[in-house]
Design brief:
The structure holds 2 protein chains of 2 kinds.
Chain A: H1 20-37, H2 40-58, H3 60-83, E1 90-94, E2 97-100, H4 101-127, H5 130-138, H6 142-172, H7 181-212, H8 230-253, H9 270-302
Antiparallel strand pairs in A: 1-2
Chain B: E1 4-12, E2 21-28, E3 33-37, H1 44-50, E4 60-67, E5 70-71, H2 77-83, E6 84-87, H3 91-94, H4 100-111, H5 115-129, H6 144-156, E7 162-166, H7 174-191, E8 194-198, H8 202-205, E9 211-216, E10 219-224, H9 226-236, H10 246-251, H11 262-272, E11 291-300, E12 310-318, E13 322-326, H12 333-341, E14 348-353, E15 368-371, H13 384-391, H14 397-411, H15 426-439, E16 444-448, H16 456-471, E17 475-480, H17 483-489, E18 492-497, E19 500-505, H18 507-513, H19 520-525, H20 535-547
Parallel strand pairs in B: 3-8, 3-9, 6-7, 7-8, 13-17, 13-18, 15-16, 16-17
Antiparallel strand pairs in B: 1-2, 1-4, 4-5, 9-10, 11-12, 11-14, 18-19
Helix pairs in contact in B: 4-5, 4-6, 6-7, 13-15, 14-15
The chains are: A mainly alpha, B alpha/beta.
Chain lengths: 304, 549
């Protein structure tokens, strides 16, 4: 469709309505902490939380996407042992190359990492709208933030115009049958060249429109502002405390993970349990908060 | 104090022998709605840009421009950005950011308006322009008309005291253009903002303006009240006459005050034909031609779960005629053309090319070429000539040249062959596109909105050209919003609504049956005369009456 209606606002309640800085902290922590430690439990917890949260935000579409991600992960798990031959425990030889238990296990871990990052990234996309990103970058890097929103504007425009050019050329000329490879290359380069000309010529107008509206005056501000609410303070405090607790537990208990030459995971002692509990709070919090808010509103509306 | 005072302004572009604006003196009063019109290349855009220093092109300028008593050179950038708003031609290009919300805030962010004030101003503007529904949307998802309204709103949010508009509706369809003019009119009346508007489509905006200034070759040829200016243009025989509203064209030079709207026109007409016995207009009998194209029960949608764009559309296009298909935005016109050209496939129904003699499915389908709405995107070289040469399907260099020259002559594109495609005006660009089309030697030409952005003169030229081509046996199927053009040049007209053909016939019958979707002349003569659709039809009666009362 030419004009597809698309709403760019984030969901109306719960985590998505918190202050962007708080959201940013939670999303980054959930996605990045397991990346540093590569511990199976951290990865699994973050992956599951990310999976459920992206379902909650995206519904059916997210489920479809998740299917694709899982497929990718399966391929990774299957392929890894045949590419990576490190590890001491050899299970079988394929084409004179060893397949090791460690590399199979590492494949699983790596797939978990990939999934975890992908899921949290899709949550990030839903929660941190371009306006929020503009706000996060805005005050300190105004040009960067503007550049970002302009790029977001240009990407769909370029795509649309490229399609128009392609269709325009097809509609005009009589291409008989299929094009040969060489001709296809030449055709694509023509489309690209026409797109470049178009972009340069039209860019002048955009620059005029910006100048006309005072772009370049000193003291540019970002008009988006988010004020902190009670919930923001509470969630920020929970984040800080969990982070602190996790770091202390890890520091006291020690977290050394290695996968080669043999898999070595830290013992399941008290400190480890504490660290994992704190991390779970971090990455399940958005989901918990959303459900909590949903229940609260349901209760409030019940009284109407 | 006046909004603008121009004294003996002369402006010359670098490397140009002739000045683009010559010795121009003009005063624009505060709160005035001034319409600046003139043929393309008359210097109206150049003049308008002189009034906004940030957008003034480089060149040499003599004379004085004062803004509210201050010389324009002394006006600082901040005040200029705040107080002089400017809306450009292309709705797409002006949008800077990705969301409607941010676009509205853009100007205020530049000015450093504190967030609380900014939010209030944006809220006000959204209410004023009725943008509530698209406030949370991406700018890319808006229609062209809404985009231009957004551009207007994001200028008005800065609360300018003067609004300059450079052909703001030339890329819009008539309905959207009308909405846009109404919005500008409201700003002028309700906010007291001074408006200076350049435009070549005068039908709608002529009655709205307080004063009209006409430019010719960089000079101010005429200035005054719309009615006065209209009369003067007729008296001097200016080519701008073609662009005037239909009622004015019909009753100019008759002594009574010039009618500008259909309502006034009807009153004049009733007075004029009192005692006349005007016969019904003899409707053409449709030329009996075997159809070249038969479309049967066509269904199409873009995606599995998307709504149908075309639903059960059946249509038969006669050979060698100009078939005009009209319809509003989203009625599926452009989609239909791409289906006929075979760029997309319907999910049900058929598009069949017919044999000339048997009327059955043709063994060798005719060659078909489609010209897209914006032919400019087809050009990628630095001159039109190079592009045409590359597009010629012939093998040898000499043959290519010969075929290009032939096509160029037919399309009337000789004058601008050595120019850059992006420097062409709308009319020239359309001609260049037609030349590109003719190179393929098509039997059937599909045209998508060929009159978009053209001034009245270019439209006439295009119409004559299409007539000539159809006389040579080419079948032309065009889709358009342009009711006046289709009424004048079409052999057959059809109305597409909601993905299907609701009405079809020769223009005289087609337009007399329609009440709203019809030409201005038809709206004016309804109930008074029967079957009169174009100015020519009515004028013929005038003449006949004079000769033989």
């Amino acid at each position: 469709m030419k004009h597809r209606q698309k709403n760019v606002s984030a969901p109306r309640s719960g985590f998505a309505q918190l202050h962007p800085v708080v959201q940013c902290f939670y999303l980054l922590a959930a996605a990045c902490v397991p990346m540093f430690f590569m511990h199976p439990f951290f990865l699994l917890s973050a992956m599951l939380a990310g999976l459920f949260y992206s379902f909650l935000l995206g519904g059916k579409k997210a489920a479809k996407k998740a299917g694709g991600f899982f497929l990718l992960a399966c391929i990774l798990i299957l392929v890894n042992p045949f590419l990576n031959h490190a590890g001491n425990t050899i299970l079988v030889y394929v084409n004179d190359l060893p397949v090791t238990r460690e590399s199979i296990f590492y494949g699983v871990i790596f797939a978990l990492l990939l999934l975890e990052v992908l899921f949290w990234f899709s949550c990030w996309n839903r929660i941190i709208t371009s306006r929020k990103l503009a706000y996060l970058l805005g005050t300190r890097f105004p040009s960067l933030s503007l550049l970002f929103t302009m790029v977001l504007r240009l990407i769909p425009r370029y795509g649309k115009t490229a399609d128009e050019i392609l269709k325009g050329r097809r509609g005009l000329r009589n291409f008989e049958g299929k094009l040969s490879f060489g001709k296809r290359i030449r055709e694509s380069s023509s489309v690209f060249s026409a797109l470049t000309t178009w972009a340069l010529e039209n860019g002048v107008d955009t620059a005029d429109s910006m100048r006309a509206r005072g772009y370049g005056l000193p003291g540019r501000v970002c008009t988006v502002s988010y004020s902190g609410k009670k919930e923001d303070v509470v969630l920020a405090a929970i984040w800080g405390l969990s982070m602190l607790g996790m770091v202390i537990s890890l520091w006291a208990g020690g977290l050394k993970v290695s996968y080669f030459p043999i898999t070595r995971l830290p013992a399941w002692d008290g400190w480890m349990l504490w660290a994992q509990l704190f991390f779970s709070v971090l990455c399940w919090m958005p989901l918990i908060f959303d459900v909590w808010e949903e229940l609260r509103w349901m209760r409030l509306r019940w009284k109407i | 104090m006046d909004a603008f005072t121009l004294e003996n302004l002369t402006f010359t572009y670098p490397n140009c022998p002739e000045p683009a604006v010559r010795d121009l003196t003009l005063t624009v009063k505060k709160g005035e709605f001034l319409l600046l019109c003139g043929a393309s290349g008359s210097g109206k855009t150049t003049l308008l840009r002189q009034l906004k220093p940030a957008l003034s092109p480089s060149g040499s300028r003599q004379g004085k421009i004062q803004y509210q008593g201050v010389s324009l050179e002394d006006l600082d950038f901040s005040r200029q950005s705040r107080e002089i708003g400017f809306v450009l031609q292309d709705p797409e290009n002006q949008i800077v950011t990705d969301t409607v919300e941010h676009e509205l805030a853009f100007g205020l962010e530049n000015l450093g308006v504190p967030p609380d004030t900014a939010r209030l101003r944006i809220a006000e503007i959204v209410e004023f322009f009725g943008l509530q529904e698209c406030y949370n949307q991406e700018t890319a998802s808006l229609s062209g008309g809404k985009k231009q309204i957004l551009n207007l709103a994001s200028v008005m949010v800065m609360q300018p005291s003067v609004l300059l508009l450079d052909e703001p509706t030339s890329m819009l369809d008539p309905v959207a253009a009308s909405d846009f003019f109404q919005a500008v009119y409201r700003i002028n009346r309700e906010m007291g903002t001074t408006v200076i508007l350049t435009e070549h489509r005068l039908e709608e905006v002529f009655p709205l303006a307080d004063r009209v200034a006409v430019m010719e070759n960089g000079e101010l040829s005429c200035l005054g009240d719309p009615r006065e200016v209209g009369e003067k243009l007729f008296a001097t025989g200016s080519p701008m006459v073609r662009a005037l509203p239909a009622p004015a064209r019909l009753f100019a030079g008759e002594g009574s005050p010039l009618p500008l709207t259909v309502r006034e026109g009807r009153a004049c007409l009733e007075k004029k034909i009192e005692g006349m016995n005007v016969p019904d207009f003899p409707a053409r009998t449709p030329r009996e031609q075997s159809p070249i194209l038969k479309i049967k029960h066509l269904w199409f949608r873009y995606e599995k779960n998307a709504p149908d764009v075309l639903s059960d559309l059946s249509l038969s296009v006669p050979r060698g005629q100009i078939f005009c298909l009209m319809g509003g935005n989203g009625s599926g016109k452009t989609t239909l053309l791409s289906l006929i050209r075979g760029l997309r496939r319907p999910y049900s129904g058929s598009v069949q090319w017919c044999d000339e003699h048997t009327g059955k499915k043709a063994k060798n389908p005719p060659s078909v070429a489609l010209l897209p709405q914006n032919p400019r995107i087809l050009f990628l070289h630095s001159t039109v000539w190079e592009d045409l040469l590359e597009a010629a399907p012939e093998k040898g260099k000499g043959e290519k040249k010969k075929s290009v020259l032939e096509a160029v002559e037919k399309a009337g594109a000789q004058v601008f062959l050595q120019r850059h495609p992006y420097d062409l005006s709308g009319g020239e660009c359309q001609k260049a596109g037609l030349a590109l089309l003719l190179l393929q030697k098509p039997d059937v030409m599909l045209l998508d909105e060929p009159t978009k952005g053209l001034d009245a003169h270019s439209k006439d030229e295009l119409g004559d050209l299409l007539r000539k081509l159809s006389g040579e046996g080419k079948t032309i199927l065009m889709v358009s919003h342009d009711v006046e053009f289709c009424g004048e040049f079409g052999d057959m007209c059809g109305l597409l609504f909601n993905g299907t053909l609701v009405s079809c016939g020769v223009p005289e019958v087609f337009f007399s049956e329609n009440r709203y979707y019809t030409t201005a002349v038809s709206r004016m003569t309804r109930g008074i005369l029967t079957g009169y659709v174009t100015e020519k039809d009515v004028k013929a009666v005038w003449r006949k009456w004079k000769e033989d009362p």
